[in-house]
Amino acid sequence: MFLKLLKTVSYACILIFLWHLIGVFGDEVKIVSVMEGDSVTLHTDVTQIQKYTEIRWMFGDKVITRFNVTTQQISNSDSPESLKDRLKLDHQTGSLTITNIRTTDSGRYILEMYEKIYLMKTFEVTIYAPLSPPVITSYCPSSSSSSSVYGCALLCSVFNVSDVTLSWYKGNSLFSSISVSDLSISLSLPLEVKHQDKNSYSCVINNPIRNQTTHLDITQLCQPCSGKVVLI
């Protein structure tokens, strides 16, 4: 009878352990996107921080800050020099703010909070470089077809970009687009319009959090071909 009870208790303990394990490690990863140079706050979503005795933030497998809730002491001694002066921890919530964020700060951040209740959260932070407005140029096609006489050949270009979409818009409608995820490449998207075209055109570059627009001035760019390239 005692052995049967012991097995039952052991089985229940294993189930409770597995339930806690799933609760800790089964939490979804929170995706955070931020522009280089901005600040980002990783929120604990905890309102009663007093339930915990210690809070620990990690970047990858390295501890970057520790907070002793009882003594209210923060230690950044183990954090990389590149991060140390840019970390701010909220004493009330344990949330972590990274200021003047850099592309090298991209990666996985892990929050661990200790006491009788154990909490773990994971954040995947992606940093995007600032976007410059697209450059629109006109050029004379090599062929001497009627389209080269009555039409205007244009290129919208961006340089040293990654994870962006480059698009031409006719009014508010998407006309054409191209997307890339490579690192630091140059990208161009062609367009041909008639000299007398009265529609408005614009070229837009965007990433998941920002965009930049350059509007086409047909009267300025679309001049009769003289062998010269015009840009705005």
Number of domains: 2
Spatial extent as radius of gyration: 28 Å
What's the CATH class label of the largest domain?
A: Mainly Beta
The amount of helix comes to 10-25%
Q: What is the mean predicted local confidence, pLDDT? A: 82
Strand segment count: 17
Low-confidence stretches: 2-26
Q: State the end-to-end distance.
A: 88 Å
CATH topology of the largest domain: Immunoglobulin-like
Number of helices: 4
CATH architecture label of the largest domain: Sandwich
Classify the beta-strand content into a percent band.
35-45%
InterPro entries: Ig-like_dom, Ig-like_dom_sf, Ig-like_fold, Ig_sub, Ig_V-set
Protein name: SLAM family member 9-like isoform X1
Domain Ig-like: 133-219
Pfam family, one: V-set
What's this entry about, in short?
It holds the Pfam family V-set. With 232 residues, the protein is α+β, with helices and mostly antiparallel strands.
